[in-house]
TrEMBL record:
Domain of life: Bacteria
Residue ranges annotated for the Gfo/Idh/MocA-like oxidoreductase N-terminal domain, each copy included: 5-121
GFO/IDH/MocA-like oxidoreductase domain mapped to chain residues: 134-260
UniProt organism field: Nocardia terpenica
InterPro entries linked: Gfo/Idh/MocA-like_OxRdtase_N, Gfo/Idh/MocA_oxidoreduct, GFO_IDH_MocA-like_dom, NAD(P)-bd_dom_sf
Gene Ontology MF term list: nucleotide binding
Phylogenetic classification of the source organism: Bacteria, Bacillati, Actinomycetota, Actinomycetes, Mycobacteriales
Protein name, per record: Gfo/Idh/MocA family oxidoreductase
Family matches, as PANTHER family: CONSERVED EXPRESSED OXIDOREDUCTASE (EUROFUNG), OXIDOREDUCTASE
Entries under SUPFAM superfamilies matching the protein: Glyceraldehyde-3-phosphate dehydrogenase-like, C-terminal domain, NAD(P)-binding Rossmann-fold domains
Length: 342
């Protein structure tokens, strides 16, 4: 049998890109695909390796002895259950974000993977974006001095997802769960994952009710995280922000020697420009290709972690921290407080 790591992909509406991503000659191959829509599962075979099988039954995929690693790309409420079943079947697991909809379930999966010596990863793919990777390398190398403030935002002009994304029972939450998982992860990862000492948050669903067909999730969320290293992170998220651009995505870091911004280009949330500023003068646009350490491929990185037992690009333990932060932000937003100024 080939030495390539053999994958099973679950959920093909968004997971088809993973079939293509892990079909890498000599490195990894997809031997099973699964979706509740049999037509979608069958269609994915065109992008998979020879001998790949399609099924509508998750148990058939997870019990296939050829499958070494399972990739889960289904609605959020099923992430934890399917990941747990795959780990219990002794498969390595990669889960689309959010890894789980609660911090407690995330910690349970982390412990299970550790007990069984398996790799558990979350697919926080923005970590592999060259501009964000270069920003992290600049921070790690001391290029900003001591970072004391970060701002992370993702505000859409008018783009609230429909279907199960507006159902709290299935999605786990609204914009904080959907876009916030990415932005909070990137901010903490860039800063080296310091502990979150305290936080505040607020959410709103007014615009979703007024401008869309409703739903029971929030369309706007803001928050402030105070970290153990005395830095603070401001979070701003919205599905319906009225702004001129369709997508406005930003990571801004301010340090004692310089500041940097990673901002999306145009209306795309897939392409970014990294800029370093010193005293507000002569902004320097950084070519990520000139940073000594290059961003890894999310796909090759997970394969390497399986082969070596090393840490994947986004280990489950860090995804669990993000899940716990989001738990606490929802709790803070729901808390009833007394006015401090009347």
């Amino acid at each position: 049998m080939s030495s390539a790591v053999r994958f099973g992909i679950v959920g093909l509406r968004h997971g088809l890109r993973h079939v293509r991503g892990w079909e890498r000659p000599g490195e990894s191959t997809v031997v099973a695909v699964c979706d509740v829509d049999s037509g979608r599962a069958d269609a994915a075979l065109a992008d998979a390796g020879p001998g790949c099988v399609a099924t509508v039954r998750f148990d058939q995929l997870v019990e296939d002895p050829r499958v070494q690693a399972v990739v889960i790309s289904v609605p959020n409420d099923a992430h934890a259950e399917l990941a747990e079943r795959a780990l219990l079947a002794n498969k390595h697991v990669a889960v689309e974000k959010p890894m789980t909809t609660t911090g407690n379930r995330a910690r349970e999966l982390v412990r299970l993977a550790e007990d069984r010596g398996l790799v558990l990863a979350a697919l926080h793919d923005f970590r592999a974006d060259p501009a964000h990777w270069a920003a992290r390398e600049l921070v790690r190398g001391g290029g900003l001095g001591e970072v004391y403030f970060a701002r992370t935002m993702w505000v859409r002009r008018d783009n609230a997802p429909g279907s199960w994304y507006r159902d709290r029972a299935r999605a786990g939450g609204g914009v904080l769960m959907d876009l916030g998982t990415h932005r909070i992860d990137l901010a903490l990862w860039t800063l080296g994952f310091p502990d979150v000492r305290e936080l505040t948050a607020a959410t709103s669903s007014r615009l979703l009710q007024l401008r869309c067909d409703g739903g029971d999730v929030e369309d706007t969320a803001v928050g402030m995280l105070h970290l153990d290293n005395d830095a603070s992170v401001q979070v701003e998220l919205s599905f319906l922000g009225h702004l001129p651009r369709r997508e406005q995505v930003l990571l801004e870091l301010r340090g004692t020697q310089a500041a940097l911004r990673v901002a999306n280009i145009g209306d795309s949330y897939r392409h970014y420009l990294l800029t370093v500023l010193r005293d507000g003068n002569n902004p320097q646009h950084i070519d990520p290709e000139q940073v000594p350490s290059r961003a890894p491929s999310m796909y090759s990185d997970f394969v390497a972690a399986i082969r070596t037992g090393g840490r994947p690009l986004c280990p489950g333990s860090e995804a669990a921290v993000v899940a716990e932060v989001i738990d606490r932000m929802y709790a803070a937003a729901a808390a009833v407080t007394q006015p401090v100024v009347r």
